[in-house]
């Protein structure tokens, strides 16, 4: 070949260049993935904050007592009556009565309907306004 460069050396050089190009593409994709994860985390934080605000708003609207609010929050989180009673150190009958009052004030018949009130609110209500969504997309 040319001045001591063999075909094998050219082949190895081509493979090295191809590997470097591959590394560049992988680095670019990793960067894009990290940025996408940051955007998703921001959206999750916004949704979490939105849900918290929705819960507080409803609890205030229904005029729940502190005990009812605590029981309602545990119910939203998925704890059953026995677990709620154990955590709060109250009798199951007390917890059951408080949860019944919460359902009455919320005008629902059961836990599924109760939880769906909050899910429906988040689905029907945009989490971020148009400017916030544009800023999230730009990041």
What level of helicity do the residues show? Answer: over 70%
Average pLDDT works out at 85
Distance between the termini: 51 Å
| Structural class computed from helices and strand pairing | mainly alpha
The helix/strand order is HHHHHH
- The global form is rod-shaped
**What's the number of helices?**
6
What ranges have pLDDT less than 50 throughout 5 or more consecutive residues? none
Strand content: under 5%
Overall number of strands? 0
Question: How large, in whole angstroms, is the Cα Rg?
Answer: 28 Å
Largest sheet: none
What is the topology?
Elements: H1 7-61, H2 66-76, H3 81-88, H4 92-106, H5 111-124, H6 130-138
Helix pairs in contact: 1-5, 2-4, 3-4
3D architecture notes:
The mean pLDDT is about 85. This protein has about 140 residues and is mainly alpha-helical. The longest helix is centred in the first third of the chain and has 55 residues, at about 5-60. The chain has six helices and no strands.
